[in-house]
Amino acid sequence: MRLHKTGILLLILMTTIQVFSQKNKSTISGIVLISNYKPGEAVSVALKGTTYATLTNNKGEYKMNVEPGDYILAITYVGYKTIHTSITVKQEGKIVSDITMQEDIAALNEVAVKGKSKVQRVREQAYNITAVDLKKTYNSNADLNQILNKTTGVRVRESGGMGSDFNFTLNGFSGDQVKFFLDGVPMESFGSSLTLNNIPVNMAERIDVYKGVVPIELGADALGGAVNIITNKSVNRYIDASYTYASFNTHRMAVNTRFTNKDGLILNLNAFGNYSDNDYKVDVSIADKTTSKFLPEQKYRHFHDAYKSGTIMAETGFKDKSFADYLLVGFVMSGNKKEIQQGRTMDKVAGQAFKDGEAFISSLKYKKDNLFTKGLSLNFNTTYSLVNNRTIDTSSRVYDWAGNYTYRNFGGASDKGELSDRKTFYLYDERNLLAITNIKYEIDDHQSVAFNHTYTGYKRKETEEYKEVIDLGEPSFDKNILGLVYNVSGFENRFSASAFGKMFGFRTSTANKGETESTSSTNYGYGATATYHLTDKLQTKASYEHAYRLPSSAEMYGDGGVTITSNTGLTPESSDNVNFGLVLITQKNKHHFGAESSLIYRNAKDFIQITRVGNTSSYKNLQSVRVTGIDGVLRYGYDDLLTFEVNATYQKQVNTNKFIKREDLEVPDALYNAQLPNVPIFFGNADLAFSFKNIKYKHDRLTLNVSANYLDAFYLTWPVLGGLETKKAIPEQFTQNIMASYSFLNGKYNVAFECRNITDVKVYDYFKVQKPGRAFSVKLRYFIQ
Amino acid sequence: MFINKFQKGFALAMLSLATFSCSSDDAAPVQEPNTTNSKYVASYWLADYTQYILDFNSVDRLMTGEISAKGVGIEFGGSCFPVANTFFALSTEDEGSVSFHLNNTGKLVAGDKLALESSYVVGYTDDKRMINIGATWDGSSSDYELMIYNPKTVSIDGRKFNDFAVSSENKKILYWPTGAAVSGDKLFVPVYIKDVTDGTNKVLSSDAIVRVYKYPSLEYVTTIKDTRTAAIGLYYTNTGIVQTESGDIFTFSSNARAGGYPVTAVSSGVLRIKKGEDKFDANYFFNIETSTLKGKVIAAYPLVGEKVFISYIPNDVDPNSPVYSFLDSKPIFKSAILDLATKTVLPVTGLPDHGGDEFFGLGSMFVEDGKAYKSFVTGKEARVYQIDIATGNAKAGALLKEGLYLPAIGKLTY
After folding, report:
1. ipTM entry
2. Looking at the complex, does the CB of residue B7 fall below 8 Å from at least one CB of chain A?
3. Which first-to-last residue range defines the signal peptide (chain B) (predicted)?
4. Pick from A21, A40, A22: nearest CA to A30
5. Which of A518, A649, B43, B67 sits between 20 and 30 A of A135, alpha carbons compared?
6. Chain A contact for B25, CB < 8 A?
7. Which 8-state DSSP code applies to residue A96?
């Protein structure tokens, strides 16, 4: 209720300021000419360092309403030299003299340079970054996990169908070592109902995957990198609605809309829902009830694996105002429920256990360029989230894969549940306050400094019906991360570099039986990035970060001991991350060719790793780990007709502990220099797409896509130990997918058919956890702009 | 069926060979066609809860160089027990229990698989089968299930529930089993008493108590008690009860903090149940605490005849040791050989003070040709030691490279 009132007040306040600010704007206008004094059409005209930008009309004319002041007018046009000119806009307005652009001979030499896409510009940053363009996948039934699984260095390990648990691995680092962001806002406070496995592709424009070195503006304590999902902001008004029906009684619905009026009032509304029975077949054996003997393997259907989730995200505010480039308040409400079909492997079946969660998130976003002075910008994001999670495992039934059950022999009122060693009715409420402040100052055209402060306050309250003593009481932690970066560019923008420092403050508090235990730590990280364009086609990159990651709530506080027991003594882990990269992009006639390759090196200390403790697991600061790897991607395109991409990743992750501690002794570690267990080592993807236009109607488009995914076998336990013949392995997987989509009326109507895992091979990401086989889907999508 | 006949054939062949070898010790070796081959099999437990089942051609392999799972061994969890020419890996976890055996080329291979819901106690029977007792750890049910595992068919032959509540009026004070042994038609299950009223599984002081059942019907007969010493055995290790070659049953009471018990005034020692009887022998008590060892017996392993190997904690060390020290690898334990018939003590020499057995016990000591083999953690390293049963002299053997324990060692034939 309070939030509601605050929202109305903000709305009134913003409207008042907006009306006032409209009265103070002046008009700037002019004409741009290109070679031979022809009018330049669709030339970009912008005021540098502001959001004021427009395109010229067919007469070369442009016009913008701006606040009076001093600006740098930037005129850019593909194949022409960019022009910067200082102007002063007075109250009565400004008519700029005609501007004539000169051809850029170097750029036009030999090849016809096309304008760089936003995705390409992101890829050219000095970071080791993969920018995934989601526009190409809008008609696909895939979720964000499946899209990301196709990128170099990334392996998303799933334990089943829709809504199943997943582990995101980036260059050998996984789980919370990789941070996720939605438009720069950390997603760790969003709960399980809003994750990569249920966000529809249509909501986002692209995904930036930062490997090893993370920009300070994300304010992240990431050890292995970060994934930033960028939602679509460039289109002012649109509706994108889609519905998918797929195998295993799977339904996906998504509606994404944006409304912006002439006065800058914005309303973003995203709603999506997912449902699946996940009743796919697996190959397992069941035991005879009398003799306890296992019977031969058979195919059985998942019968308790359904998933449902729903999310509504609403955001409103203003943009392009004198007091703010944008000011938005938002609210997210989401919930999900996942039945649990099996334990750590398929040998243990459940028919009653489930997890569910709800999240309520409010947010405020503010951005202003040229605040107080030219070149100074402020960006502030804050969210407050309430997340409720439940894990319910209270049944005394013992199921088999046929869906039959008996009652547990050993299990009175509170002994074993279906999956855990004791019955569990575990509920925990999480409260997260997050505040991210980014301040950037552009010293001149080639230099800037930026500052970031990110605060996270976390508190959990847990209750457990079957356990009289709650281990941790009400644990909480605070994280304060400060970052400072200096950016410089030169050599006609062929070179750019940055140097940064970060400070990580961490304080925990655990109340237990009236006593409070606190810990605190401060760590300092630093790094640098550099890139140089050797030629117009060839770019080199290098980046380094001494990174820290602070333990997450899940790692410290567990899930009530159902699968993860708590360890409040965890300390931050650190890593020295180095990347080298080469990027080649060229084009001849209608042939486009691109290649990228990266070498990565990671040297991690106090590596937080999940370890098995009896039937559950616990996170511990275990090891020193070194990761070395190479990945590469080749891209080829022919006009708009064909695109082909193939990529591969090889990474080696070894234990660099020379000694291990045993009680109070330090003894040599016999597994020094050994490859770590249960880590994917070699994987790759290929993707071939054909696109045909104007088949039946003008501007219609038929796209045919074939993709393949390969993962080499790897071992569940230390690869050096045991005979290979009998070793527990996650087998090699090679799957192929096909998709055909048809769009007509300029992409307004879209229909797509897809078949995943067309050869219906058995697929595993985890030991003895079989994933869905062949699946079909049809997606209907309506898009209007 | 074929394997069954095959095993019988080998058993007969072995028996013939053994008879022949006993009767011709002083005679010149006679070349006989080699119809029986054997291998030594050991489970090798690593700190990360993985286990590798290794096989060796010679027992010398236990005594030389290093024992390592690098590139060798079958990866399988569970508690392993050599039984009836198989190596049974008992696991209540998802993957089930598996019976391993040597195939006709001498390769150790997995046989059939069994699903066991619970296992807290395991013991051998006279007829080459095993007892398994399932229970609820938190005491939410006082009904425990006794099972007979048949290694020949890899299945459960018999099963019966029994109420382990100390009194039928209070189901929160429970007997908790620490071992099982079968002698003739009786199954003996030593127990301690625990209170689960507040959910903390509190161990109470008690007399030496054994529950007696008929075998193989598993029908409950009686509960016998003896006040001369305290509770028998340790949680999970199955090392508190031993049947010797005479058929007598001996029980071992630690009355030690290291064993997880609140210490009482009685002495740590050994009691006897004579073959065919179902009561403690009132004339037999082997007081270990006041013996020349001046210690408390923690665990016992059968050797030959009436001899057992014991690990013990000195009387003056136990009060300063944490409760349940037998789970730790800290070297605070010593060893000795007891002749139970004569109540004589032979301290083991050449074996440094060593750690506890963690949750391992039954099956971890292998006896052959007057020598006993077992792994010990002796500080920074863990090694196999060979103990001469006659002299008590221990000799250091192979170093365990990656792990700390060989929880089971056995010999299989093919």
Report:
1. 0.81
2. no
3. 1-27
4. A40
5. A649
6. no
7. P
